[in-house]
What does this fold into?
Amino acid sequence: MNVRKLLLQLLKIAISAGLLVFLLTRISPDRLLPVLKGIHWAYLLLAVGIFFLSALFGSFQWFLLLGAGGIGLPFGKTFKLYFVGLFFNNFLPANVGGDAVKIYDVSKIGNDPYQVFAITLLDRVIGITGLCLLAIAASVILLGLGGIEELSIYIFVFIGCIVPVFALVLNRRISGWIKRMFTMITWWGLGKRFGSIFEHLGGFRRLRILLGRLTLLAIFVQFLRVATHIAVARALGIAITPEMFLYFFVFIPLLGLIMVLPISINGLGVREGAGVLLFTRIGFLEEQALLMEFLTYAVMVTVSLVGGFLFLIRHVRGEARSEGEVA
It folds into this structure.
């Protein structure tokens, strides 16, 4: 790791630590402990089950995209690679580190890395699109019910995230213009690499029915991920009104978009701070919002340990196979 990357990681650590310290000085442990003591473990286990189910369907979404792109991995293999990636998403400094691991794993068994990169990028984009569509629907309903005044701004944010994506994926002229712009980059052969990625992405333009079905699947996956937060809120004894239920489908996507910004270590501190700012707007206590976001992250990490176990098994078997070959 060079000095610049090291300083960047140290800055991210400082931001995460600083935000967490600020939150804990603002919300003292005396306010947090009573909420934790009253936790309902059945709801917390339900949250684990819901998030596992969302990851299972997420791996199926990636499996379908790989197949459509000509990479015929069995679903069992795809499931393992997806969960290993999920594990590294939580345990590498950047929350897209797991995608790099997935791309490497699929590429090393004889597939074009630029093709795998394009498919994994498209998988991410479809997921964000599904999340934003859910958020737009919930925001429109809440506006009709006289919700908070920022909802109109949130709708424009969500629309702004998905319109360029649709234009890039579905419009040949726009995608061609962007491809030509990127291929002009000559440093380290980046232009040629970008060109290869755009070529693979362009191949999905003719599969609009499949992309539509995958978007519906992504909406279901993201629904389950929002439901994970709701189950954690119930575990903390928070009463969820129908209106609050809808706000989850606005605020969690906002948190997801904020988390894309690479300014902290896996969103620690940023997630909790933004969660407090948003959920206290609809009646949550600060300690409830903080614990809900932190415990939801803990649930996600717990489920991702399945991937850590699969990676460990693969590593042990690989070492045993190497020793057998040497013997």
